[in-house]
Structure formats: C-alpha cells, structure tokens
Design goal:
By secondary structure, the chain is mainly α. It contains 12 helices and 4 strands, in the order H-E-E-H-H-H-H-H-H-E-H-H-H-E-H-H.
Amino acid sequence: MSDFVSGFWNIYVVGIVLVSVIGCGVFLWTQSSAKHVEGETTGHVWDGDLQEFSNPLPSWWRWLFYITIVFSLFYLAMYPGLGTYQGQFGWSSTGQYDGEMKKADDQYGPIYKKFQSQDIMTVAANSEAKEMGQRLFLTYCSQCHGSDAKGARGFPNLTDNDWLFGGTPAQIKESIQKGRDAMMPAKGVKPDLNGDQIKDLASYVKSLSGLASDSIRAQRGKELFGPACSACHGPDGKGMVGVAPNLADKTWLYSSSEDVIIETITKGRVNRMPAFGEFLGDAKVHLLTAYVYGLGGGMKEAPAPAAAPAAAPAEAAPAEKK
C-alpha cells in the first residue's frame, strides 16, 4: 500500500474485501433458504433425457462454505489483508525474512567469523569450510561457471591456471567483491580493418597458440597485430593481467575456431562478472574466495606484470579469452 499516496485506496481495498466476503455469505444464505420443489428442473436438458434438477446443496457442503467465510474473517483480523491494517499479529513478509536471517546469523555467524579471521589458504584447506564454500558456489556461481567450476563458452574455467584478472587470493576476492568488466573493441566497424585483414589477423592469432593456420595469412596478420592489438595483448600476444588475455596459450573463453576468432575481432566482446560483496557480505565472500582458490587454479603470488608498449592507444581488449 506504500505505493498509493491517497488514503482513498486503503478504504477502497478494505471495502472490496469485506463486501466480497460478506457478499459470499449472503449469497449462500439466500440460496440455502430458497424454496425448492421436488422434481423441479432448471430447464437444462442434454441428449433429450439428461436434466439438471434444482436441488439445494447438501447441508454438510453448505456448512463447509460457512466455515470458510468465518475463517476468512478471522484471518483478516489476525493478518494483513485489509488495506494498511497489519492484523493483530503484525506479520509481514519482510519481518519474517528479517527474523529468519537473524536466526541464521545467530546460528552460523560465529562459524563464518571463525573462518574470516583465518587466511585464505588456511580456510581453503579446511574440510568444513570447503563444504560451506561449495554450497555458496552452487547457489551463487554455478549458473555461469558450472557446478564443477569448469565454465562454459563465455564463462571462464576457475580450475585452471589462466586468470585474466589474477588468481591470487587477494585478486580472486576482489573479483568476487567488486565484480569485473571486460571489453574488447570491435575492429570490424568504421571499418577499422576490412574482412580480409581480419582473416589474416585471425590466422596469426591461431598460430600464436600453435594451432593450424594459413602461414601466408599469418605472416600478413603478424604485421597487423602490432598496430591493431599489441597495445592490449602485448607485442608477443601474451596479454597483461587485468588488461587483455594471453593469446599464446591453449585457453580459449569462446572458441579457437577461425570463425569465432573472426567474429570476436570483427564485433568485439563485452563480458561482465557481477559484484557480490554487498550482497553476500565480507564473511561469505572470504569463504567463497577460499573455495575458488582451493579448486586448484589459484596462485600464491601474482605474476610480474607485463610491460605495456610505449605507444598504446586508449583501448582495452580483455574479452577474447579468460
């Protein structure tokens, strides 16, 4: 009712509800008190012989209706249903939720607090923490990363050693808390590159991973790679943490097929990992971080950052791979 600024709507809802309930009772009473003639029909006839008789409801059935009306009036007195009136119990779905959350915090809060005081690697090695972290992961993360955390097309594998934004405990926690946004600019618009150049570039990108490619096109693509891609992916295509993925390994977030690589270069990619920090709270994020780290792909220390090329245009392209 908070959406209605006029008090009229409160009176309107109360009136509609009471008139409806009382009207049902009055209608029932008029029908049960009406005179019925034995053998009288309503005039409805089917197949020549099947007729509908105008008989009263059985008493047991009629009294069940009366009981439901009395129950509805009692319910409306105890619980919300009459406009802004909250009922004698003062119940609300928000209040029930808050009560359940408080009960859960009282029960599980000390456990979360215990693990929150420990470092990530210690928590990751604890079987109880791992089980709790797995439940959190299945609830909030498996929809994108899969129940086995091995990801899917467009969603990274969390069990390998390929991390665009870093796989250290601190970096994983930051990803969960704040989320991540990744964008690879489209090179096939304006057009920046024409179709034949994009195909050459795709061949070179495939060759960086040791995949079969057209050597002539790859050579031409290598010449294009410097001005078109090295600002983000580096001159050797090995990427930079938090900027662009490594194109010289065997990990592909979308696909290593030529058609998909061409699509990526032409149209670009936009990926987003939502932030869970405010929703889950620090304690659950800590536990979830430990679980993800314990999946086996986490790193103890961050790798040394790659040096960016001297002349780098203001573009970022981290969405082709993880």
